Every structure is written in C-alpha cells, then in structure tokens.
Amino acid sequence: MTGRIKVGLIGIGNCFAGLIQGIEYYQQNPTQEVTGIIHDNLAGYGIHDVDFVCGFDVGENKIGKHLNEAIYEYPNMVDWIPKESMPKTDAKVYESPALDGVGLWVENRIKPIKSNKTDEQLKEEIKTVLKETGTEILVSYLPVGSDKVTEFWANICLDNNIAFVNCIPSFIASDEKWAKKFEEKNIPVIGDDIKGQVGATIVHRTLAKLCSDRGTKIERTYQINVGGNTDFLNMKEQDRLASKRISKTESVQSQLATRLDDDQIYVGPSDFIPFLGNTKLMFMRIEGRQWANIPYNMEVRLEVDDKANSAGIVIDAIRLAKIALDRGVGGPLRPASAYLMKHPIEQMADIKAKEACESFVAEK
Ligand SMILES: NC(=O)c1ccc[n+]([C@@H]2O[C@H](COP(=O)([O-])OP(=O)(O)OC[C@H]3O[C@@H](n4cnc5c(N)ncnc54)[C@H](O)[C@@H]3O)[C@@H](O)[C@H]2O)c1
Predict the structure, then answer these.
(1) pLDDT tens-digit profile of 227-273?
(2) Which of 96, 139, 187, 327 sits between 20 and 30 A of 167, alpha carbons compared?
(3) Residue-wise pLDDT tens digits, 188-206
(4) Alpha-carbon 16 to chain mean position
(5) Same domain, 120 and 23
(6) CATH code, 295
(7) Nearest C-alpha to atom 31 of ligand 1 is from which residue?
(8) How many C-alpha atoms does 203 have within 13 Å on its Cβ side?
(9) Is residue 167 lining ligand 1, measured as CB closer than 6 Å?
(10) What is the 7 CA–ligand 1 centroid distance (Å)?
(11) Does 345 share its domain with 242?
C-alpha cells in the first residue's frame, strides 16, 4: 500500500454524492466486484485509499456542513446509501466565490449564500483550509458554464501546488496557455469534461469510429441527451453551453477519417425532463453510405444513471493524478486526459488512450 490520497472537491452536487456513496457502497459490500474502473489496484492505490478532506460550494444549505451531510442536501438526489449509514467525516464544506457558477434556471434551487466576503478574502480562507487539510488534488464538479470559477480554482491549484482534475467543459488542461502554466510549475492536470463509463460520448465516438474504420462514408449524425437533474436544468441556458457543445462534438469528430461539415453533425444536451432525475437518455443516429453508394443508418437509445457513469471515471482520474504527484510528473497528463475526458489536449482512439494509461501506470 502506497498511502492515502487527500482530495478536495469543488461543487458538492450529484456527481460528488455519487462518487462518495459509491465508495461507501463497496465498503459495505466487500465481496462485490468493483466495476468500471481501470484496475482495483492502480500502482498501489485502491478505491478506498481516497480521503475527501474538504469541499467548496456556494449553496447556503451545504456550506458549514460535514461532507457526509452536505451530499444529501437539496437539490442533490443521489441516495444509494441511506443518509444515516454514511460514515461521519471531519471534512467540511467551505464557501467558494460564486462568480459565474450559478445559472438562471438553477438559482432558486441552489440558493447561493449571500456573502459579503470578497474573492480575495475567500482566496485566503481557501488557502488556509487547503494547507490545514493537506489537500493534494482538487476535483472540479462545477456547473457547466462556470468559466470564471474554473479559472479561479485553476489559479488556486497553481498558487498552492495542488493537482487539478477538471470534470467540466471549461478548458484548462486542453488549453495551451493554461497547460503551459501547469507544466512550468510541474503540477499535474487532467481534463477537460469527464467522459462517462458507458456514456453518450463514448458510445457515439466508438460507433462513429467503427463506421469510419470499416470504410463507410458517414454523411450525418446527431446525438440528443435529456435528463432531469440540476446539471440538465442548468444546460437549458444556451449561453452556458458553448464549450459543452465544442467538447462533445469534437470528441466525435476526432474519431472520423473525414470531418463532417458543421451542419451535418449535432451533438448536445437538449432538454430537461424533471421526472427523469439522474437518469439520462441519449438518442443517437448515424447515416452513411456503403459499397455502391448504398445508404445505411443506425439508431441507439442509451439509458444510464448519469452519476454512476461519471464516478467510476473520476476515481481513476484521482488515482492517476496521485501517481503523477508521486513521480514528480507535471503538466497535462495526456494519456489520462485522452482516456478519461471528452476534451483532452491530445485526442487519441480510446483503445490507444487506455494502453497509454496502462504504460504510464506500469512505468517505474
Ligand atoms: N456523467 C456526468 O455526470 C457528467 C459527465 C461530464 C461532465 N459532468 C459535469 O460535472 C459537473 C457536475 O455535475 P453535477 O451533476 O454534480 O452537477 P450539480 O448541479 O448536481 O452540482 C453542481 C454543484 O456546484 C455548486 N456550485 C455552483 N456554483 C459554484 C461555485 N461558484 N463554486 C463552488 N460550487 C458551486 C452547486 O451548488 C452544486 O452543488 C457538471 O458541470 C456536469 O456537466 C458530468
């Protein structure tokens, strides 16, 4: 065993609730095979070697609470483990600057704290918390469209020598300017925008690559996603969506032998259906031509729990960031980002990205 991994969270929403409750699920069911991760043991780190040491949010009902309580606060809806059986933790939720984190549609659900602290004051408070808790890695689960908050936290990582796992489509690890800053300080960064275990993106890009590799000509394709949690409600605000569309679209385009014209590909979060909760539905269609110009098409409907889908990936991202810290490797982690994220600095075919991750883990 190599030691503990001390992780701080930014955004104590449904994704984090799924991550921490999933770890507890395996704790309470030790004979249950851990599904979906790269390996149980990644260079000595298992899923139970992660300590969540602090959290940051803007919700007035979450700030000041212990993590094991805050994850059940409204509007969160993950309840795989009953609240009373979640082990108590000393780790607490602290205030993060709101900046552009809270969108129009979710404001009266999140109920952001009316703070009179300046960003500079918060920065100092955060610095103290990170030092006292010994945080080594920060994971961002901010809402889509939180570009300014993401930059605030990327700078916190750079100033405090903390690795960054960016699960959202505000581009840091994949942006040359930001990647260089992490490189110069030799701090690992994995991002951007988590790719689910069997999510819409991985299914779409795999099938698109299959059609492309088999020599057919893809003429047009779409992917429509609907869900019923705050993530989907927030994405009703079109202005917050620009980078999400780029991230999802490029993830598919990158797998095609020939890029499609912009008007022949539509990939996007498309609507909020309240009663779906954390269930995400994806509808995908590919149209193309085969031998002798004969047309074909395929349609896929995928139904998944969106939070289980992301948590299994993030537990690997955390462990890969820790391995990089142990080995003194900094800057954007290319194999990890290509395998685990939709918008990495360098896109790779998924199979190649997995092999590159395995080689990185196996390196001494
Ligand atoms: N399969 C997936 O679930 C998946 C895949 C890819 C990306 N993501 C992304 O992960 C992110 C998190 O998803 P979620 O379902 O947990 O969302 P969520 O809405 O449940 O949680 C977001 C949390 O961020 C908090 N927040 C808002 N502004 C903040 C600020 N300025 N500082 C700190 N916290 C702030 C909110 O109060 C809330 O607790 C989203 O951007 C989502 O698109 C999820």
Answers:
(1) 999 999 999 998 899 888 898 899 999 999 899 999 999 998 889 99
(2) 327
(3) 999 999 999 999 999 999 9
(4) 10
(5) yes
(6) 3.30.360.10
(7) 98
(8) 24
(9) yes
(10) 17
(11) no
| Ligand 1 site, residue 192, Cβ cutoff 6 A | no
Is the beta carbon of 315 within 6 A of some atom in ligand 1? no
Domain total in the chain: 2
Q: Tell me which residue has its CA closest to atom 11 in ligand 1.
A: 141
From the CB of 314, is ligand 1 less than 6 Å away?
no
Which of 20, 57, 125 is the pocket-test mutation for ligand 1 (most atoms within 8 Å of CB)?
57
Q: Which of 165, 159, 170, 169 lies closest to 189 in space, CA to CA?
A: 165
Binding site membership of 196 for ligand 1 (Cβ less than 6 Å): yes
Residue range of the domain that includes 285: 200-305
Integer angstrom CA distances of residue 200 from 4, 139, 165, 249: 33, 22, 21, 11
Tell whether 165 and 206 lie within a shared domain. no
Among 66-80, 93-107, 148-162, 242-256, where is mean pLDDT lowest? 242-256
Atom of ligand 1 nearest to the CA of 230: 19
Neighbours of 59 (CB within 10 A): 24
Q: Which two tokens mark 345?
A: 């600095």
Which protein residue has the closest C-alpha to ligand 1 atom 37? 59
Average pLDDT rounded to a whole number, residues 53-64: 98
**pLDDT attached to residue 2:** 64
Q: Residues 142, 149: contact at Cβ < 8 Å?
A: yes
pTM over 0.85: yes
Structural tokens at position 254? 């990158």
